[in-house]
């Protein structure tokens, strides 16, 4: 279990994260394929992103963003570091490989063991010579009910790197499908389920699958909150309430997955704050208490990141003067 989080500014004590965490976001990425030129968050959007995060820190105490842009997704860890510093919000960067359409050519010729060594190198020495070390592996992806052969290799590589370094793994399950197969593959490679978050489960209207994943010990990511074109928040709320009612409040993670510039508030989108301004009020109106909300927005993501499989970090108040500072420089 890790008592320090590896952020883009260096190690940060878990106890310093006293406000909510966004469990799956993007601050800098490029997912353009074919005619889709809008799936970007570029340096030109950095000021708007910074202002959104700073406003959420001031209004809601936002303390940490888990940034799941990995290799092949236009990752920019230096840009993340500038946003984190300017917004005074801690950011955890990621490594890994996304799902198959975004795989670089060389993956077709590389074993899972060799891929794992690449990830371990980034985790130990930093991304691309930057010295900025990732603190999570993800969003490692697949599409369909079963991973393709290249996706299975990258998932296995993620599990091997995670067991070697102590990091946890967040997945991309396209439209919520394939989570059980992802978990089976990751755990078969030696990764405990409590160090796995299965992504995009709010896009899968199947409470039985959510219960099965949660009963195994994995985290269930309701991480596309506000993306009404994929799923209505009304359905997301129903699915989350069903998971809570089944006794799995300690397995749920929440976020908005801002993955294109059109989602930014400055461009008329829902923004990173939709979770706090719209969805959590609806959760409270449905009778969910503040202790549970603190769990799904703070304690659960911290337990996921640290690999803690027991009591969550003790609750704390909102930071009075911005987020706590990292424990040291990037390593």
Automatic annotation (TrEMBL):
Biological classification of the source: Bacteria, Bacillati, Actinomycetota, Actinomycetes, Kitasatosporales
Positions contributing to a divalent metal cation 2 binding: 139, 172, 200
Q: Which cofactor does it need?
A: a divalent metal cation
Coiled-coil spans are none
Composition bias type Low complexity, residue spans:
307-325
Q: Which GO terms describe its molecular function?
A: hydrolase activity; zinc ion binding
| SUPFAM superfamilies for this protein | Metallo-dependent hydrolases (SSF51556)
Q: Cite the binding residues for a divalent metal cation 1.
A: 24, 26, 139, 257
Q: What residue spans carry the region label Disordered?
A: 299-331
The record describes how the cofactor is bound as: Binds 2 divalent metal cations per subunit.
Give the matching PANTHER family: PHOSPHOTRIESTERASE-RELATED, PHOSPHOTRIESTERASE-RELATED PROTEIN
Q: Which domain of life is it from?
A: Bacteria
Q: What protein name applies here?
A: Aryldialkylphosphatase
Q: Does the keyword Metal-binding apply?
A: yes
What PROSITE patterns does the record tag this protein with?
Answer: PHOSPHOTRIESTERASE_2 (PS51347)
Q: What keywords would UniProt list here?
A: Hydrolase, Metal-binding
Q: Does the keyword Plastid apply?
A: no
**Family according to the record:** Belongs to the metallo-dependent hydrolases superfamily. Phosphotriesterase family.
């Amino acid at each position: 279990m890790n008592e320090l989080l590896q952020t883009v500014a260096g190690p940060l004590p878990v106890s310093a994260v006293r406000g909510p965490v966004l469990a799956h976001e993007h601050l800098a990425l490029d997912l353009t394929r074919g005619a889709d030129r809008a799936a970007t968050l570029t340096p030109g959007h950095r000021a708007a992103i910074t202002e959104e995060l700073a406003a959420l820190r001031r209004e809601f105490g936002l303390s940490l963003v888990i940034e799941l842009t990995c290799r092949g997704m236009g990752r920019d860890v230096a840009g993340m570091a500038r946003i984190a510093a300017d917004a005074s919000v801690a950011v955890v960067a990621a490594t890994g490989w996304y799902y198959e359409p975004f795989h670089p050519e060389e993956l077709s010729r590389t074993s899972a063991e060799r891929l794992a060594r690449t990830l371990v190198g980034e985790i130990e020495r930093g991304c691309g010579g930057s010295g900025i070390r990732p603190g999570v592996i993800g969003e490692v992806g697949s599409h369909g009910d079963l991973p393709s052969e290249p996706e299975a290799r990258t998932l296995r590589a993620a599990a091997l790197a995670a067991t070697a370094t102590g990091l946890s793994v967040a997945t991309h399950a396209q439209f919520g499908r394939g989570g059980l197969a992802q978990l089976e593959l990751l755990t078969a490679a030696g990764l405990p389920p409590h160090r796995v978050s299965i992504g995009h489960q709010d896009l899968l209207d199947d409470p039985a699958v959510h219960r099965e994943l949660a009963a195994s010990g994995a985290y269930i990511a309701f991480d596309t909150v506000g993306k009404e074109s994929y799923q209505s928040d009304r359905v997301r709320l129903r699915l989350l309430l069903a998971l809570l009612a089944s006794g799995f409040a300690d397995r749920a993670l929440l976020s908005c997955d801002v993955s294109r510039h059109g989602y930014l508030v400055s461009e008329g989108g829902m923004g990173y704050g939709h979770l706090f301004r719209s969805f959590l009020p609806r959760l409270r109106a449905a009778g969910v208490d503040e202790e549970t909300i603190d769990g799904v927005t703070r304690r659960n993501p911290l337990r996921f990141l640290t690999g803690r499989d027991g009591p969550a970090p003790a609750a704390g108040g909102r930071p009075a003067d911005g987020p706590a500072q990292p424990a040291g420089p990037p390593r």
